[in-house]
Amino acid sequence: MEKMTSPYKWGMVIDLDRCTGCGACVVACQAENNVGLCDKKEIAEGRDMHWLRIERFWVGEYPDVRVRFLPVLCQHCHDAPCEPVCPVYASYHNPDGLNGQVYNRCVGTRYCGNNCPYAVRVFNFYPHDWPKPLDNQLSPDITVRSRGVMEKCTFCVQRIRRAKEEAKGEGRMVRDGEVQPACAQTCPAEAIVFGNMADPQSRVARLSRSPRRFRLLEHLGTHPSVYYLKGGGREHV
Amino acid sequence: MKRRTFLQLSGMTAAGTVLSGCQSGNEKLIPYLVPPDEGVTPGKADYYASSCRFCPAGCGILVRVSEGRAKKIEGNPAHPVNRGKLCAMGQAVLQELYHPDRVPQPLKRSGPRGSGAFTRISWEESLELLAGQLRALQREKATDRLALVTPQLNGTLVELTTRFMRVFGSPHHLSFDLLGPDWLRTATRRSFGQPGLPWYDVAETRYLLSFGADFVEHHLSPVQYGYAFGRMRQGRDTVRGHFTYVGGRMSLTGASADRWMPARPGSEGALALGMARLILAESLSDAGSLAVNGLQTEKLLRRLEAYDLPRVAEQTGLPQRIIAEVAREFATTRPALAMAGETVAFQSNGPDAVRAVQMLNLLVGNLNRPGGVYPDGGSRVGPENSFTELLSLVAAMRDGRFRVAMIHGDPVHAIPPATGFQEALARVPFIVSFSSLMDDTALQADLILPDHAALESWGDVIPLAGTRDRVIGLMQPVVTPLFDTRQFPDVLMAMADKLGGKTAAFPYQSYQEMLKGTMEKRVGRAARRDFETVWVELLRQGGLFETRQGQEKGYRRAPGSSLPNPAEPRFAGDEKRFPLHLLVYPSIAFYDGRGAPLPWLQQLPDPMTTVVWDSWVEINPRTAAEMGIGFGDLVEVTSPQGAMRLPAVIYPGIRPDMVAIPLGQGHRGMGRYARGRGSNPLVLLALITDGTETRPAWHATRVRLTRISEKGELVTAGHPQGSYRSELIEI
Ligand code: SF4
Ligand code: SF4
């Protein structure tokens, strides 16, 4: 892993025992980040633009069948396979541990998407327009991406920036829980927790040490910043 | 003029002035965090508190407004129901405001009914048109020939509609919601003598037993219960609450359960009583609770004799061992909580089945206890059986009893056609719709008086069964209305004005004023003295949130209430011709259909099937294989009531003798995103009667399937059969 260059290391914990699969986070993300509206045809072609998806697993057969949900978003890997393959450095690592994406630098080779084992980078195959007056909903904080660029979850970097600026103005660090991405903010079950992993006392850091934790495709050595907590634990009937 | 002042006048703060013709005063918006006198800072967003009225849960919202435009809806952290959280629908309400197909001004029909041909007219003209119709009724002393159809309303709007109809002289106001919990009100009154709805302390319980109560999706207050569920699971230091789900289809809620009991449809009440019998027989019940409620074990046992384990096992199709195990777990884990939901209630024996589940709570002594069930703090009043009222309204309509029907909402889509509503409505000579989108009802209307979008409206929202406290959420317009629309209550008031003579009944200039007046009455004497300040504060924080827990009279068995005794379930359609049970369920995105016009919701992959932009029928893999049906094949579903074609989804979490279809699609209108998409399963539903009461058999209709072709055009966002790489998540 790279050397610490910032007092922040943003990370996330998703408690699968709490997640009910309700999809509130998916819409929250789309609303916050001006993610394009994809019609049926586009999704049929596999060109859905969601930055956050809920994987659904069926296990077993009737009547002993179970379902589990797995919210998947950019894992913000410390050793991100998408970064070194970008010829124009549009996919880069920022000092806070975020895997950033410079939209106006991206030339659309899609190498990064091919190299991402989590399939969380989405390419703008089509121009997405918002029929008037629907365009009024577009957030002024985030660029509206055009056709031909790769885009992805940024942990709502615009919110992180705002919180950091405010904290800096007041001469302090960002407080634990002060900044939340849209998905974590809305999740009814409080399954998603976001915060500074570099602060061992933060909620996210404490949860990431849970015996229930695991990370996706850990054997690949990507070192994701997203930890999952599997079900069970504690006293149980 | 300074730029800032200009913005202030033209943008957000001017919302009050341009609201509608009958409003006055330069009402300022009250932001949530920034003090109001700071005004607009270009480029900086403000948050305004309001309430979500998309479903009756009534969550508190904060709307992010930037330069006069609403940008995002978030949960209001101060609101006791949802504490800053919000469901997918609540977020998407933004797209109702900016929907490209909104009705921009009043419309008058200019072609045959249902053709969609309308011409634009002015508000003056349109109000005069309606007033003319109503005046004619007054002249002919036929005022009871006016019908008003709305969803189940609450707060000041009830006061207004009631007063309007009374003053006008018509008793025919039907407030019908397909998903309204009237059945739960009735059952609760019969069990515990209280008219309100129950509030379940899911967060603190250790054993949750849900009989078809889909609290994550739509049951009562989904955000509140989703939140509580998270707490029940991993919110406490040493306890992880256990969850058992009973129901023939594994719903989204059921998917989170530790144990799934796919009981045969209609047998849930018998299952509850079988468990009750076992709990009593093994002396696992709470003696104190039985004594307080005047019940004796021996007597109860004698009454429950019929519900012995072998018989219940046969009725439900579940193994005896499992029934006994769950009954014991439920009785020996304290606190334990049982909930009854829609899939149980809409059986032929639903009312008694719901009461049987409620009795389980009494047996284990969790009435009025942490982790148990309490009376809720809000909606004490509400319709108890609006379905019966619906049927009598339909009968009257069919007889040509009505001359004018004023309709809010989209009943043409959301009422099962088996009731005859759609045909009866066609016999009403003059139909007025208040829809802001050209929905299925508006398409049939002669006059459309488009309502404001929720984010342009004033209002109060009393949350449904979401808390034990008294909560009154307020709605304030957060943006200047986009189109030439008017709020429904303001139109009613304008109508009262026009009809004259009786205006004394409405001593207010506008609905906003009336709302302010009701709030003033609600806040208590001390606060009333300086009400202006209080009002601003209420708007700022999003409503009146009072803590008065425990002041309600707790639950206790209603004296003389009989023991529930659910009859053998009956189904519409005979078993030979219609071998499969049909379950029609509200999807997480569309509720009763009102979510369908919003593209974010159409595009949200259904959590259980990952289907987007469509509707479908769920079939057990074994049944599908037997019938040669593959994933995505086009299938015809036929019930005694109707037929429709749908793509098939192979669904491992459903009984082999059952199929399920989500509600909410199949609109003829409702704008470009909903129109002509999927099918409305309500056309399949038949009516059943239990001898005393007729009800929609939306969980008691039988169907058969016929495979049509391979071309279902089903689009899923995930792998069609679901990902099987579950080793990824270690389950
Ligand atoms: S909002 Fe929360 S509970 Fe709902 S799907 Fe997302 S993570 Fe799961
Ligand atoms: S639960 Fe109902 S009231 Fe709450 S946000 Fe969702 S739609 Fe709105």
TrEMBL record, chain B:
One GO molecular-function entry: molybdopterin cofactor binding
Q: Which InterPro entries match?
A: Asp_de-COase-like_dom_sf, MoPterin_dinucl-bd_dom, Mopterin_OxRdtase, Mopterin_OxRdtase_4Fe-4S_dom, Prok_Mopterin_Oxidored
Q: Which UniProt keywords apply?
A: 4Fe-4S, Iron, Iron-sulfur, Metal-binding, Molybdenum, Oxidoreductase, Signal
Keyword check for Iron-sulfur = yes
Q: What is its EC number?
A: 1.7.99.4
Q: Which SMART domains does the UniProt record give? A: Molybdop_Fe4S4
What is the top EC class of this enzyme, as a single word?
oxidoreductase
Pfam family of the protein (one): Molybdopterin
Task: List, alphabetically, the Gene3D superfamilies matched.
Answer: 2.40.40.20, 3.40.50.740, ADC-like domains (2.20.25.90), Dimethylsulfoxide Reductase, domain 2 (3.40.228.10), Formate dehydrogenase/DMSO reductase (3.30.2070.10)
Family assignment from sequence similarity: Belongs to the prokaryotic molybdopterin-containing oxidoreductase family.
What name is this protein filed under?
Nitrate reductase
Q: What is the species of this protein?
A: Geotalea uraniireducens (strain Rf4) (Geobacter uraniireducens)
